[in-house]
Specification:
CATH superfamily: Uracil-DNA glycosylase-like domain
CATH topology: Uracil-DNA Glycosylase, subunit E
Number of strands: 6
Strand order of the largest sheet: 1-3-2-4-6-5
Structural class: alpha/beta
Radius of gyration: 16 Å
Shape: globular
Largest sheet: 6 strands, mixed
CATH class: Alpha Beta
Helix content: 25-40%
Number of helices: 7
Strand content: 5-15%
Distance between the termini: 39 Å
Amino acid sequence: MAWREQVARERRAAFRDEEYWGRPVPAFGDPDARILVVGLAPAAHGANRTGRMFTGDRSGDWLYGGLHRAGLANQPDSVRRGDGLALRDVLVTAAVRCAPPANKPTPAERDACRPWLEAELDLLEQIRVFVTLGSFAYDQTLRILGSRGVGLPRPRPRFGHLREVALGDGRAVLASYHPSQQNTFTGKLTEAMFDRVWARARELAPG
C-alpha cells in the first residue's frame, strides 16, 4: 500500500502532469459477463495511474486489442476511464488490487485481496469460463474455486498456455500467458496465440 501511494505521488516523468489513481483498482466490464478475466495486479503506471484494470500500458493494449478482435470489446484501445471502451460478455479483474513493487505480489498481498475476488464470484452468476493471465492468477483462481467446493481434477493441472481445466460444476478455467512485455516482446506470447485464447473462451461460454 505504501509503495502504491509513493508511486502515485512521485509519478513517472512521462505522466508527471497527471493525477494518479493511487488506490485499489476495481473490476471493469460487463456485470452479466460469462467470461471472467483474472490478471495479476494493477501496473504501477498503468491501472494504478488510470484507475481501470489493464488501462494505460502495453499489457492493456494487448488485452483489449485481443478482446476487440474477438468481438468482445467495442474498441481496441484502453487509454483512460471515460474513453468509451465497453466490454461485452467479459469482466476484467485481478488477483491483487494494488500495484505491487516489481509487479511481484507477496503471499500476504494475495491473501489480503482474496475477499474482493471472492465477493465478485458471489455476484457474477453467469460466469462460464475463467481466463487466467499468468500462473499467479491461475493458481489463485484454482485455489479459491477449490475452497468453494468446486470439483477440480486430481492432480491439479500445472499452468500452461491454453491449459484448460474442466470444473466439476460444468464451468472451465482457461490459462494464458500474461500479455506482459516480457512475454510479448520476446515472442513467448504472439498475437495469434492470444487470439486462440479468446476464440476458445467464446466456445466455452457461448452466447
